[in-house]
Amino acid sequence: MATPSSVKNQLAQVETGSLESLLKKSVKEFARALPKNMRAERLVRIALTCVRMNPELAKCSQESFIGSLLVSAQLGVEPVAGQAYILPFNNKRKVDGVWQTIKEAQFILGYKGLASLFYRHEKAVQISWAAVHEKDEFEYEYGTSERLVHRPAMKERGAVIGYYVIATLAGGGKPFMFMSKEDCLAHGKKHSKSWVTKKYDEKARRKVDCAPHFEGPWADDQESMCLKTVLVQLMKILPLSVEIQTAIAQDEATREIQPEAKVDNVL
């Protein structure tokens, strides 16, 4: 476990300008937001790791970076190991009546983080998920006689065709959700900020068309993001805790703001 002095030493090694000082000042604020099982010093250490792994985060506005960490603290989900991500985005903000492109950090929840929130609910027993391959034996049915049967092929399973998540609840209920891979990707293209159709041209100082593609976790860990998409849809039909409701609302707000969108406020 990191100590305050070790965190201070790590901060001194990161060339992030005034962001370093701001992180130092924010430790107490993080501590007030964090659940008892998490330490503010550890969150700061993880933040430093995020900056080292993605130096663009150091160029983001201080308010957005600290705000992303506060969301992480409030949810009790660390931006590490697929739990969540903190990523940089170029957003349009109106400053003194003039639209400007500002680089901002954004907290994005991962499927493992959402699953950990599920287990905090009093009715949660177990949650499981899997990818379905084209040569697997797979059947499912919704309605009054819901069922899901999945028998993975013993050898070559073929390409992934979909994903499902099953939640086991106290009382014996086992609601599930299945989505094809195509539906998951279509959902990501429609809602995710990681789906990019325009790039900002620094010389021209405007956005220009580019080949449509995913960036961030949708590009680096597509399976995890597909599973998260299915899990979010399932969570919407489960008995939800305030934490899960907050997490989904925060995440969907993130996904609804496209990179091209203009937001009429300043953080």
SSE map:
Layout: H1 4-13, H2 18-33, H3 40-53, H4 62-75, E1 84-95, E2 98-109, H5 111-119, E3 124-133, E4 137-141, E5 147-151, E6 160-169, E7 176-180, H6 181-191, E8 195-201, E9 206-214, H7 217-220, H8 222-235, H9 242-256, E10 262-263
Parallel strand pairs: 1-10
Antiparallel strand pairs: 1-2, 3-6, 4-5, 6-7, 8-9
How would you portray this structure in words?
The protein is an alpha+beta fold and 267 residues long. The chain contains nine helices and ten strands. The protein has helices at 4-13, 18-33, 40-53, 62-75, 111-119, 181-191, 217-220, 222-235, 242-256, and strands at residues 84-95, 98-109, 124-133, 137-141, 147-151, 160-169, 176-180, 195-201, 206-214, 262-263. The strands form four sheets. A three-stranded mixed β-sheet has the order 2-1-10. A three-stranded antiparallel β-sheet has the order 3-6-7. α1 (4-13) runs parallel beside α3 (40-53), α5 runs parallel beside α8 (222-235) and α6 (181-191) crosses α8 (222-235). The longest helix has 16 residues, at 18-33. It is globular and about 60 Å long.
